[in-house]
Design brief:
Layout: H1 3-9, H2 20-33, E1 36-37, H3 39-42, H4 51-60, H5 67-81, E2 84-92, E3 105-111, E4 119-121, E5 133-134, E6 141-143, E7 146-153, E8 156-162, E9 168-174, H6 186-194, H7 199-202, E10 205-210, E11 213-218, E12 221-226, E13 229-234, H8 238-249
Antiparallel strand pairs: 1-10, 2-3, 2-9, 3-4, 4-5, 6-7, 7-8, 8-9, 10-11, 11-12, 12-13
Helix pairs in contact: 4-5
């Protein structure tokens, strides 16, 4: 892997080494510059999880992706730098509080050489924590106007997000059993590309963090969140949508 090309893609200019500062800085830069998106699903373009395919899409074409793509390639970068990365099987909570399928989401368990505290890294969940979560901290981990926490259960962990209005919601459940990437995730990746039960086949989204919020194009709407305040407006035409794709995300389809 060409580390310098990857760092240029996420506009990360600091010295990299396997420490906490680098891990946090890389995830934050990734969230700012590489969008969470399912545009290929909507365009019926098959998603490949080989490192070569992910590299071509995310680094060369300057596109984004969903969890298997974004965390799959990010794990490769972290490993190259010297972090110890384990792929995790995560299942996402829906609005009714029900869990999705096995391998519904890919998250990363990261250890730093010489340190005991592991971290949960994730650049592929969309509107979520911009910096990794510390497994040794079970209280609130504040990030800007939001906060996150890890709840340990008898069978694994739950990630919680504190919203702008102060309410808490569960995001996903995971355990620490090591998984193989991409083999263990191929079936779930195909499911999310083809099943009518998957949210990725029912709607279109491209979204990334900004320094004071988030910008998204979702199902014909432009959504801007700035310092906790959300505004949205409809997109009038395909031409406007394409212009916003280029302006907000640097994406040309």
């Amino acid at each position: 892997m060409d580390i310098s090309a990857y760092l240029a893609r996420i506009d990360y200019t600091r010295l990299v080494k396997p420490d906490v500062q680098t891990l946090c800085g890389l995830q934050f830069a990734h969230m700012l510059h590489v969008p969470f998106e399912n545009l290929d699903v909507r365009l019926k373009r098959p998603i490949r999880l080989s490192e070569r395919a992910l590299w071509n899409k995310i680094v060369i074409q300057k596109r984004g992706g969903f969890c298997y793509e974004l965390n799959g390639l990010f794990a490769g970068l972290l490993n190259e730098i010297g972090f110890d990365v384990t792929y995790l099987n995560a299942r996402v909570y829906n609005r009714e509080g029900e869990l999705g399928i096995d391998y519904d989401h890919l998250a990363l368990f990261v250890k730093i050489p010489g340190q005991s505290a592991p971290w949960l890294a994730d650049v592929g969940f969309g509107d979520s924590f911009n910096k990794p979560l510390n497994f040794d901290e079970f209280g609130e981990q504040v990030q800007g106007l939001r906060a996150y926490r890890l709840e340990e259960t008898p069978s694994g962990y739950i990630t919680w997000q504190k919203n702008y209005d102060g309410s808490w919601e569960r995001q996903y459940f995971f355990d620490l059993q090591p998984q193989n990437f991409p083999a263990d995730y191929e079936a779930a990746c195909l499911y999310h590309q083809t099943s009518p039960e998957s949210s990725f086949t029912r709607g279109s989204i491209i979204s990334r963090s900004t320094r004071d919020g988030r910008v998204s194009l979702e199902d014909g709407r432009l959504i801007l969140t700035t310092n906790g305040l959300r505004e949205e407006r409809p997109i009038a035409s395909n031409e406007e949508y394409d212009a916003l794709l280029k302006e907000c995300f640097g994406v040309l389809l």
